[in-house]
Amino acid sequence: MSTTYEIAAYPKETALRDNSIVTIRPLAPQDRDPLLAFFLGVPGDERYFLKDEVTSPRLIEQWTQDLDFRRALPLVAVAEDRIIAEAVLIRKRGNARSHVCEVRVVVLPEYRSRGLGTILIRELCDIADEEGLEKVLFEVVEGREDEALKAAQWLGFIRVGTFEGGARDQEGHPYDVVLMAMPLGKWYEWSKY
User: Fold this and answer.
1) Which of 9, 11, 27, 176 has the most neighbouring CB atoms within 10 Å?
2) Please, what's the b/e burial string for 154-192 (b: 16 or more CB within 10 A of its CB; e: otherwise)?
3) Is residue 132 part of a domain?
4) Do the domain assignments include residue 35?
């Protein structure tokens, strides 16, 4: 198994459900300001549920300057000369978890319900499968990220657990965190048809 993801297929153009065209490509060092602008365009109540403080210029600088595709492969979708979605495949560290990865996807509100999130998740699963990884994990906050939950289920992700009250909104209301998994290999090849 190789230690770096295959990115030769990028950039690639793809059509969304409304026939608009977006370009998908790996994140690059020059994306620092556009990536920060992208995350600032995500509503604050949604950013609150992300695992990282994505409006921190320092964090965005780190993500764009310390690119290590062996550990994480970030993809961005670009339209109208701006980043409209970000997705990342994160490889688990350590030998015991080296066969597993995690995906995260964020799409600007005006580009949702067009199939972009589904396309990005599929891209990342295809890369993980080609790399010989065995399972892709995906966490979703139920009641806040229901479109992502539906997209993952449609793609064949299996609900493997629920962490009741695993997230809270800014007012302290609890939300369940759903852990989903996509088995790769032969099962994944079959599920794509």
Assistant:
1) 27
2) ebbbeeeeeeeebbeeeeeeebebbbbbbebeeebeeee
3) yes
4) yes
